[in-house]
Design goal:
The complex is a heterodimer of chains A (about 240) and B (about 270).
Chain A (H helix, E strand, L loop, with lengths): L1 H19 L2 E5 L2 E5 L16 H32 L2 H6 L1 H20 L13 H11 L2 H14 L4 E8 L4 E8 L11 E8 L6 H4 L3 H8 L5 H11 L4
Antiparallel strand pairs in A: 1-2, 3-4, 3-5
Chain B lengths: L11 H7 L6 H12 L6 E2 L14 E2 L17 H23 L10 H9 L7 H16 L11 H11 L2 H13 L5 E8 L4 E8 L10 E7 L6 H4 L3 H12 L2 H11 L14
Antiparallel strand pairs in B: 1-2, 3-4, 3-5
Helix pairs in contact in B: 3-5, 4-5, 7-9
Classes of the chains: A alpha+beta (about 240), B mainly alpha (about 270).
InterPro entries (chain A): Fe/Mn_Superoxide_Dismutase, Mn/Fe_SOD, Mn/Fe_SOD_BS, Mn/Fe_SOD_C, Mn/Fe_SOD_N, Mn/Fe_SOD_N_sf, SOD_C_sf
Protein name (chain A): Superoxide dismutase
Main location (chain A): mitochondrion
């Protein structure tokens, strides 16, 4: 029974690692998550996103999601060991919020790339064709994402997702830090844009549409194409 | 509402200019008329000399905070107030007016009524977000004062001690709840009508306890734009600063006094003749 659970944990951890590249540590047998490094410098995305924002966003916001996620998971572990169902259920919102924040931001850092590393280069091959099929053109897709992102009330994310079941690309929004799967279990995130105010306020103030217009200059379509090609290898 | 059938032959562009609460005689007259009918002049209608019939239009104005924009330094910077009031709050007001220009049914309400009507019992109409945010921000500016903070006094303190045990307990609970607002939202001290007690309520995005018919006493904006320029991600510092230096217990006292007209909080003290 212990062996089975150990194997199950290992497969979960490797599946996690493969899909999202999250780094796991091991502490007293309990998995803890850690802040992934950025694949570029804080100032590498200037002038689209300032170095100050990137540093705060990564070192403070994302770090606090990771820390609180680990804390919530530890509490969950305790509650499960004690057999306390009320506590287990009570922790769900903290886990969804902080865990979602960690998952979403880990994807976000990979979605961005400095211009010299290919940021802003439009997608080619299978993803490019899929975009043309499902949205008409890349410009139309960008317009749609920007419109939905600007219209989102409060805090949230706007996603370009692949619906694995329907084999279609869709644009979705999620509120707060809800991960994309809350909008549909078969949705795979390709690109996500953080429209929480902390993602742009210091630079763009309240002009969210400008932030959305500019972020495409550092969008890492290569990563999105890789994920798409992996999930839809036939096309 | 029907008495205010108005004549509005002003062309569109000048209508927009007039909204900016200039001291023209038309607006003064409008104010007098509204006051005489016992209505608060929170909405302005235009009356004109010529008798050309036209459609009814309602405009809500951007209320100025009861202090200068730099009066809350160093706890809330002038830059924040300029952004928050002049950009965000104004955008909500203008958005609301634009939406209302298309919709006759929602004319003639006071802000409170508009918020409740557009909430539509949990299925908010598109105007709700703007209306509620305008109301919330008006309430927020008035909930603060330069030289605020410290302790409440008299009736408010008594009620807090009755419902929370002690002021320290209340302060702890308030700050704790503020930290656990996930995403954008507000944190309120309200007087609940049914329970006849003070309570701390978190709401998300634009929701206000007004829609549940509770009486708000104090609120704090937990949207990131409210504190990001001054405190970046340090929400704790922001909330503690609000509690220690900005919160206006005077206004809370006024609001409680008014609330007591609607909620029976205890035995009245009948003086013995």
């Amino acid at each position: 029974m212990a062996l089975r659970s150990l194997v199950a944990r290992k497969t979960i951890s490797s599946a996690f690692k493969a899909s999202t590249g999250l780094r796991l540590g091991q502490l007293r047998g309990l998995q803890t998550f850690s802040l992934p490094d950025l694949p570029y410098d804080y100032g590498a995305l200037e002038p689209v996103i300032s170095g100050e924002i990137m540093q705060l966003h990564h070192q403070k916001h994302h770090q606090s999601y990771v820390t609180n996620f680990n804390a919530a998971l530890e509490q969950l572990n305790d509650a499960m060991e004690k057999g306390d169902p009320v506590a287990v259920v009570k922790l769900q919102s903290a886990i969804k919020f902080n865990g979602g924040g960690h998952v979403n931001h880990s994807i976000f850092w990979k979605n961005l790339a400095p211009v010299r590393e290919g940021g802003g280069e439009p997608p080619h091959s299978s993803l490019g064709w899929a975009i043309d099929t499902d949205f008409g053109s890349l410009e139309k897709l960008i317009q749609k994402i920007n419109a939905e992102g600007a219209a989102l009330q409060g805090s949230g994310w706007v996603w370009l997702a692949l619906d694995k079941e329907l084999k279609k690309l869709v644009v979705e929004t999620t509120a707060n830090q809800d991960p994309l799967v809350t909008k549909g279990p078969s949705l795979i995130p390709l690109l996500g844009i953080d429209v929480w105010e902390h993602a742009y306020y210091l630079q763009y103030k309240n002009v969210r549409p400008d932030y959305l217009k500019n972020i495409w200059k550092v969008m890492n379509w290569k990563y999105a194409s890789e994920v798409y090609a992996k999930e839809c290898p036939s096309s | 509402m029907s008495w205010c059938c108005t004549y509005n032959p002003l062309p569109l562009y000048s209508r927009l200019q007039v909204t900016d609460f200039s001291c023209s005689w038309q607006l003064k007259n409008a104010q007098k008329m509204l006051l005489s009918l016992g209505k608060k002049p929170e909405k302005k209608k235009q009356f004109y000399r010529f008798q050309t019939p036209s459609k009814v239009v309602a405009y809500y104005r951007l209320k100025t905070p009861p202090y200068k924009l730099d009066a809350l330094e160093p706890y809330m910077s002038k830059r924040t107030l300029e952004m928050h009031w002049e950009e965000h709050h104004r955008a909500y007001v203008e958005g609301l007016n634009k939406q209302l220009a298309n919709d006759d049914i929602l004319y003639g309400y006071t802000m409170d009524e508009l918020v409740k009507v557009t909430y539509n019992n949990g299925n908010p109409l598109p105007e709700f977000n703007n209306a509620a945010q305008v109301w919330n921000h008006d309430f927020f500016w008035e909930s603060m004062q330069p030289g605020g903070g410290e302790m409440p006094e008299l009736g408010v303190l008594q009620q807090i001690e009755k419902d929370f045990g002690s002021y320290t307990n209340f302060k702890e609970k308030f700050t704790e709840s503020a930290f656990t607002v996930f995403g954008s939202g507000w944190i309120w001290l309200v007087l609940k009508r049914e329970e006849r007690q003070l309570a701390i309520i978190k709401t998300s995005n634009a929701i206000t306890p007004l829609v549940w018919d509770d009486i708000p006493i104090i609120c704090l904006d937990m949207w990131e734009h409210a504190y990001y320029l001054d405190y970046k991600n340090d929400r704790e510092k922001y909330v503690n600063t609000f509690m220690n230096h900005l919160i206006s217990w005077n206004v809370a006292m006024e609001r409680m006094a008014r609330a007591e007209a609607f909620v029976n909080l205890g035995e009245p003290k009948i003086p013995i003749a």
